[in-house]
Write a structure and sequence with these properties.
The complex is a heterodimer. Chain A is mainly alpha-helical. Chain A has one domain. Chain A is about 35% helix and about 5% strand. Chain A contains 2 helices and 2 strands. A two-stranded antiparallel ribbon of chain A has the order 1-2. In chain A, a hairpin with a 6-residue loop joins strand 1 and strand 2. In chain A, helix 1 packs across helix 2. The N and C termini of chain A lie far apart (about 30 Å). In chain A, about 30% of the residues are buried. By secondary structure, chain B is mainly α. Chain B folds into 2 domains: about 50 residues, Homeodomain-like (Arc Repressor Mutant, subunit A); about 140 residues, Tetracycline Repressor, domain 2 (Orthogonal Bundle). In chain B, helix 1 crosses helix 4 and helix 8 packs antiparallel against helix 10. The chains are: A mainly alpha, B mainly alpha. Chains A and B meet through helix 1 and helix 2 of A and helix 4, helix 7 and helix 8 of B.
Chain lengths: ~80, ~210
């Protein structure tokens, strides 16, 4: 059974799904910064918002609201 | 989990499953909480112990559907190599959930904001896989270098037009959507997929 990324919810199975290919990490390659550390809340909100704008073409505010809603369900951001 | 919280969890799941079935069959606008409680075989009052408002229940039903759909999209799309097979997997998932998905689209304007945001989240799981695969084929020169949002929205817009106007495309089926001739995806999915691929594929010059 796949592990779920704590920061974006993506299921992670293969080595390359994990940050830096490291299966001990709890977050995925999309949630890692170039140095392998996990993006913080503001960075993740910014990148997820940009992803929604880029792939669905939504207005910035709507995309940001959706990104916040998605993140609110994930363990890394509970209580934020 | 002790027996009491286990029972509570089971009742909650029964309410969600009953609501899902009713919303799929009759639409979000017409089904009320009493219908759902009756279907779940609990008292009307018990339903509100689990979901304080009708909107809270709607949000929970859509969230549950979103989680299942995201997991299914990931499972099916991960194993696929080409854009066409990822889109085929998307069609397969829509076919499995066609009734509920159509009602989701039709109910959009009456949903609370949180439910609408969850629908965007569902589409994010789909767009992630479609765009990821499309990028590989664009790089290989197989697919036109379209902007991600236009590529995704052209595909989803085409499907949603057929789905939300399903009576125009498959007729008013008394037998419901479960029969193949009542399903838009079964009837038109392959044709729409071929058309979309034809639009975005770079044709190689014949010698």
């Amino acid at each position: 059974m796949a592990t779920q990324c704590i920061a974006c919810g993506m299921p992670m199975e293969k080595d390359e799904d994990f940050a830096k290919g490291d299966k001990s990490k709890k977050y995925c390659r999309f949630c890692a910064k170039p140095d392998g550390s996990m993006q913080n809340f503001d960075e993740k909100l910014k990148s997820l918002t940009a992803f929604i704008v880029r792939t669905q073409g939504l207005a910035q505010q709507m995309a940001q609201d959706a990104a916040k809603e998605m993140m609110s369900k994930l363990p890394a951001w509970s209580g934020k | 989990m002790n027996k009491r919280s286990q029972q509570k969890e089971q009742t909650r799941e029964r309410i969600l499953a009953s609501a899902h079935r009713l919303f799929a069959a009759k639409g979000f606008a017409t089904v009320n909480t009493l219908d759902i409680a009756t279907q779940a075989k609990i008292s009307h009052g018990s339903l509100f112990v689990h979901f304080p408002t009708r909107n809270a229940l709607i949000i929970a039903v859509i969230s549950r559907f979103g989680e299942k759909m995201a997991a299914r999209v990931h499972d099916l799309a991960e194993a696929k190599q080409s854009l066409k097979t990822v889109l085929e997997a998307h069609l397969e998932i829509l076919r499995e959930n066609e009734l509920f998905y159509v009602q989701l689209l039709l109910g959009m304007s009456i949903f609370p904001t949180q439910a609408r945001l969850q629908i965007i989240a569902i589409q994010s799981a789909v767009s992630h896989h479609i765009c990821l695969t499309a990028h590989k084929e664009i790089k290989k020169g197989k697919v036109m270098p379209l902007a991600d949002d236009l590529l995704f929205n052209t595909w989803i817009g085409l499907l949603h037009y057929y789905l939300t106007n399903r009576e125009m495309f498959v007729g008013r089926a008394n037998s419901g959507l479960q029969s193949s001739n009542g399903s838009v995806i079964e009837t038109h999915g392959q044709k729409l997929l071929n058309h979309f691929m034809n639009l975005i594929t770079i044709k190689t010059q014949e010698a």
